[in-house]
Design a protein that fits this description.
This protein is mainly beta. It has a domain of about 35 residues. Helix content is about 5%, strand content about 40%. It has 3 helices and 39 strands. Strands 3-2-1-39 form a 4-stranded antiparallel β-sheet. A 4-stranded antiparallel β-sheet has the order 4-5-6-7, with no helix packed on it. A hairpin with a 2-residue loop joins strand 25 and strand 26. The chain is flat and about 75 Å long.
């Protein structure tokens, strides 16, 4: 029986891939067992690197653990109502389906259970479906994948660059270290797979632009530098990664506040909810059930007086609800569009239109509150890439900004997402056994893959509001 030279596991006769590390077998990697690390210490020295930032932490290492829950019939109800969800959710301004030209998808590929692989923008299988789980590719051209229960990193050819020896992993940032889990704890590796901060944390996140990374240990959050040394001791009940402005939101004693990179408070914890600062220097906050806006010193520019609200958009308007009606205010707290709508979505910066609901029907208004598309739809989403998903009595369809129908999915479609920045949308179908199926289409409504898929990129689904 042969032995994989990469990880040392015994191989079955005729095996094409190693069942442990996933490497494609050939004459050069079948032979003697190499030495691999069996234990890791607690105090590894960390070298310098080029940092990147992640503006706001997503609350979990990745979304793939939700897959068994999502692919059941109960998911249908969630996706059908996704466009009408609570408006107090920061808008995702940009969504791409294909990072680095590829996106992970799940398919059966002739196997008993579905596995993950990668397709390109033409729907071609670029990397064979052979992984238990798979994340999107990062800017450095590597993607974290799970093979035979262990995580490693592959390149865009599908070849392992960093062997799958970890219990869990997150992707690299723009050009920094990647969090990995070994022996029950999280640490960091570099792009060569060298361990640079030994596993010691309960959770860990990518480094921010200021060179600090958010970590959690013993139920408390703090921040380390590139040498793995605590710059801000773990002391918060929850926290966010540092943003491009150099500040981080922290949660303690039941309230949110903000700190700088030295751990000094920009403003004390006092808010029930705190959202990212927008281009006009204001952040949406919640306090005692009301919503308002603060500046970087934590001072109210607009006192909490709204029942619900969105962050300010690039056009300088924010969607708010008062007395059960939605309207749009400017930073002077003056209504640019009076609150007369039963429901609404923020303006899309590309089209200059906002979806609004009046008397049970959805239409679209411009910055002056004038109808560009009269209320006529049962549901409506924001415009992206020039198209919007709407629903009428016959089902879902896509319209242009003049209200003209561009294409209509099959009547069996139970939900249609917005288009991504690179020109793709996701259609959701329910199969006879009550399981969701996903179809990726281009702007002509054409499927890019010949068959509907059990699951596609969780990152894309999350940003398209199919995962929360």
């Amino acid at each position: 029986m042969s032995i994989c030279r990469t990880c040392g596991v015994k191989l079955e006769d005729g095996a094409r891939y190693c069942p442990n590390c996933g490497v494609e077998l050939c004459e050069t990697n079948v032979g003697d067992t190499p030495e691999i690390p069996q234990s890791l210490g607690k105090h590894a020295y960390v070298t310098e690197y080029s940092p990147s930032y992640k503006k706001w932490r997503l609350g979990a290492a990745h979304f793939l653990f939700m897959i068994p829950i999502l692919i059941i019939a109960g998911f249908i109800g969630m996706v059908v109502t996704a466009l009408l969800a609570d408006p107090v959710v920061p808008v995702q301004p940009e969504v791409e389906m294909f990072y680095e030209g590829l996106t992970p998808v799940m398919s059966h590929n002739g196997t008993e259970k579905p596995l993950w692989g990668y397709i390109n923008g033409s729907g071609e299988q670029a990397i064979e479906a052979r992984f238990d789980q798979a994340l999107d590719f990062g800017d450095n051209g590597l993607a974290a994948v799970c093979y035979a229960g262990r995580w490693g990193f592959i390149d865009k050819k599908g070849e392992f660059v960093i062997r799958p020896v970890y219990e869990d992993a997150q992707n690299f940032g723009e050009h920094d270290y990647a969090p990995v889990k070994a022996n029950g704890s999280w640490g960091y590796i570099d792009e060569l797979g060298a361990l640079v901060i030994n596993p010691q944390f309960d959770s860990a996140y990518t480094f921010a632009e200021n060179g600090l990374a958010l970590i959690e240990i013993g139920g408390k959050y703090g921040y380390i530098n590139r040498k793995g040394i605590y710059v801000i001791e773990p002391q918060y009940d929850d926290a966010q990664s540092f943003g491009v402005d150099g500040y981080a939101a922290i949660y303690t004693y039941g309230k949110w506040g903000m700190i700088d990179k030295s751990g000094e408070y920009i403003f004390n914890p006092q808010f029930d909810a705190l959202f990212p600062f927008t281009e006009n220097g204001l952040a949406l906050v919640e306090k005692e059930g009301a919503y308002g806006y603060i500046d970087l010193e934590g001072l109210y520019v607009i006192a909490p007086s709204f029942e619900h609200a969105y962050p300010f958009g690039k056009n300088g308007l924010a969607l708010v609800r008062s007395n059960g009606k939605y309207g749009f205010i400017n930073s002077s707290n003056t209504y640019a569009i009076e609150p007369v709508f039963d429901d609404a979505l923020p303006f899309d910066d590309g089209s200059g239109l906002a979806a609004v609901c009046y008397a049970g029907r959805w239409g679209y208004v411009d910055y002056y509150g004038k109808y560009v598309i009269e209320p006529q739809f049962e549901q409506a989403g924001s415009f992206h890439s020039g198209l919007a998903a709407v629903k009428d009595g016959a089902g879902w369809l896509y319209i242009d900004r003049n209200g003209k129908e561009q294409f209509r999915p099959d009547a069996a479609c139970v939900y249609a997402t917005r288009f991504t920045e690179d020109g793709y949308a996701v259609l959701v179908f329910e199969s006879e056994d009550g399981v969701c199926r996903f179809r990726v289409v281009n702007k002509k409504g054409q499927p890019i893959v010949g068959q509907d898929l059990p699951m596609i990129s969780p990152r894309a689904l999350a940003q398209l509001k199919l995962l929360d």
